[in-house]
Amino acid sequence: MLTTLLAQASAGGAGILGQVFLFGSIILIMYFFMIRPQQKKQKETKKFIEEIKKGDEVVTIGGIHGKVSSVEGDVVYLELDRGLKVKVEKSAISLDFSKKSPSTK
Q1: Burial 81-97 (b: 16+ CB within 10 A, else e)
Q2: Greatest alpha-carbon span in the chain
Q3: Which residues cross the membrane (predicted)?
Q4: Were 60 and a residue from 3, 33, 64, 80 both cysteine, which residue would form a disulfide, CB within 3.0 to 4.6 Å?
């Protein structure tokens, strides 16, 4: 009877170790496929917003295409047409759409 209890206890310990390994591998997979790419994208977006300068062609999150007229702190003035300028926050400029936007001259 004692040997039966010891055999059951050792088998139960291996099951717990397998579950811990499975749980750890799921967390690792989630990190590499979800969390890490998101952090990389946030860094790229932050760098893009910090490097906006006069003359850049950008697209806002709302879909407005324009050319940067001037930058003052966290505010960007976009020139949509000759004489028509719009004041937007830097955070309203989209990295994804600005990269895809064909430059119109």
Answers
A1: eeeeeeebeeeebbbee
A2: 93
A3: 12-33
A4: 64
